[in-house]
Amino acid sequence: MLRLVDSGHATSYTPYMEAYMELSKKTTILLSPELHRRLTELAGQRGTSIGALMREACVKQYGLHSTEQRVHAVRELASLVLPVASVRKMKQESIPDPEELLP
Question: What is the 3-state secondary structure (H, E, C) of the chain?
Fold first, then answer.
């Protein structure tokens, strides 16, 4: 683990946690100091790199699958026959009665 000093703040950083990924394209992104600080902190907490956080966020936001693949997945889920109650019944089951909350 490396110790980095950024603007006078020492931070832990574990480099290249994504060693098994095929990374072949480079993009430079400018971040505000506050966003960079927050991402550095979060990366340290998770034991990963800022780059890995950025890739994860991009995949979650923009996905790696085509619209057709997502529609197909939704159709497969919709075709499942599962023991599910009505929305009203599930809400009733998930919200406790007031008597259950009182001592």
Answer: CEEEEECCEEEEECCCCCCCCCCCCCCCCCCCHHHHHHHHHHHHHHCCCHHHHHHHHHHHHHCCCCHHHHHHHHHHHHHCCCCCCCHHHHHHHHCCCHHHHCC
Query: What's the whole-model pTM score?
Result: 0.47
Distance CA 53, CA 14 (A): 13
Residuewise pLDDT in 10s, the chain (103 residues): 444 444 455 554 444 445 556 788 889 999 999 999 999 999 999 999 999 999 999 988 888 888 888 899 999 998 988 888 888 888 888 888 788 787 7
